[in-house]
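Thread title: Can someone regenerate the structure for this chain?

I was given the following input by a collaborator and told the matching structure tokens would be attached. They weren't. Posting the sequence so someone can regenerate them.
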Amino acid sequence: MIMKSIKKISVFKMLLIFCFFITAGLDAKMLRITDSMGRNVTLQKTPAHVICSGAGALRLLTYLQAQDKIVAVDTIETQKTAFDARPYALSNPQFKQYPIFGEYRGNDNPEKIVFLEPQPEIIFKTFADMGYHPEELQNKTGIPVITLNYGNLSNYRSELYQSIHVMGTILDKQQRAKDIIVFFDGLINDLKIRTQGIDNRHSCYVGGVSYKGLQNFQSTEPLYPPFLFTQSNNVACDDISKHLSHSSIAKEKLIDWNPKFIFIDLASLAADPDRNVLYELKNDPAYLNMTAVQTGKVYGVLPYNGYAQNLGSIMANAYFVGKLLYPDRFNDVDVFQKADEIYSFLLGKTVFKQMNAMLHNMVFQKIIEG
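Best answer:
Regenerated them for you:
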């Protein structure tokens, strides 16, 4: 079973589509936006102050190099924890010092928002079905609310790109938005070219993928982009599951599939040592009989999710998967340097070393000896 690579949409074509959603207002200082919910919102161009509500919204803003416009954050940004799987937050520790405007996952507090100083001119909101309805939030605060579809890098990439472009246009970061889209498309195309024409594809599986919290080994992504982009044989992807964003696989199926390579999402290490995925693999008799466990072909990868998908980490994981499964196609790639190259472009900082240390230096390493 080999997943087909997603047809690449050209940046030029994508931007033509976006033009439908963004039109000039009645004068040069105004902008009329059609957001992800189809709402027409008129606002002033280039706001000086904004807030980001919902999972992933602040990540996109940092990619656009506009984090200096933030005046407050939700509670997830100020949590003090030894484990933080979000590179955008690691590269912006100042977020922990900002005022709080509401709870995480879009549960905004209109009263706190209206008393912010300086006052935000726009609220960007992802996952609009969580917390206040955008129209109600806009009415209660008197601040325009722009909803964005966070999308993903697999089957909803066009929605992700649209949101980057819309946010970039509002913030007068159009060129940066284009550069981000070109960057992702360039990496994806590079992976596709490197891995094309391979007859024998290794079977593989990624387990422990967090989803609204920590999960066990059975938690996976049928459309896991690192497998998709390297055209690898993801045992969890079939005609039914490939339409799902997340799956929990029955243990019996995992044993029956018996993939040659297993990848562990290291976000699972945040669980208790006697309950995490690594403990499961080392102590569950059923898993001990799996070929990958017996041969030591179990490897750690960067967390897939961290308040929505960690897009940069996903691309770094893809290069590791490619180099491990098809080393002759990636002999010019140092996966550690590649990870920091990706983080550096997206975040302006190299945070791989910090991420790896937090994950007990298991990233891109064999984590179970056969």
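Residues 198-358 form a domain with the Rossmann fold fold (CATH 3.40.50.1980).
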